[in-house]
Amino acid sequence: MAQIKTNTPAFLGLLIIILGLGTFGQVNAQGVWKTDSSHIKFFSEAPLENIEAENVKARGAINTEKNMIAISVPITGFKFEKELMEEHFNENYLESEKFPKGTFQGTFNEKIDWKKDGTYPATAKGSLTIHGVKRETTLKGTVNIKNGKIYVNAEFTVRLEDHDIEIPQIVFQNIAEEILVTCYFSFKQ
What angle do CA 69, 70, 75 make, to 5 degrees? Predict the structure, then answer.
């Protein structure tokens, strides 16, 4: 597993903000923006079947003073077209009772003028944790600042093997080895 160098105190502060769900709505730290809506979609294209699911329950925060972002996604928040797919996803593949959240914690590589409206191509380097396996990752996307809000879009692939997600041989042609993930978040202070 890749070693990740982080600014630990800043990460801890940001994570406390995100994971403190009970007080999430009361956070008003300077430079910290919290999600007010999110949409995550994944798509698996395989020879026998395409699978997609959507999740609107992710939470997150951006610390504009530290140029950092942290996202927490409840795995059971993914909704599928077919109920049986959702059941297999949670019980057999993601083991959502054992690993209830996926997370990303990272730092934007670019200097973004958080006080100025505009669209900025952006990358964030950090750790992506899925199925309890943390991997160093760089995510590419766009930051759009407009009318007092920050909008973040990203698209990336996740290799199931990288996160120890095993697919039984019998359904190998139903599930792709790489999953396309698209994300949208809006943040407000």
Answer: 145
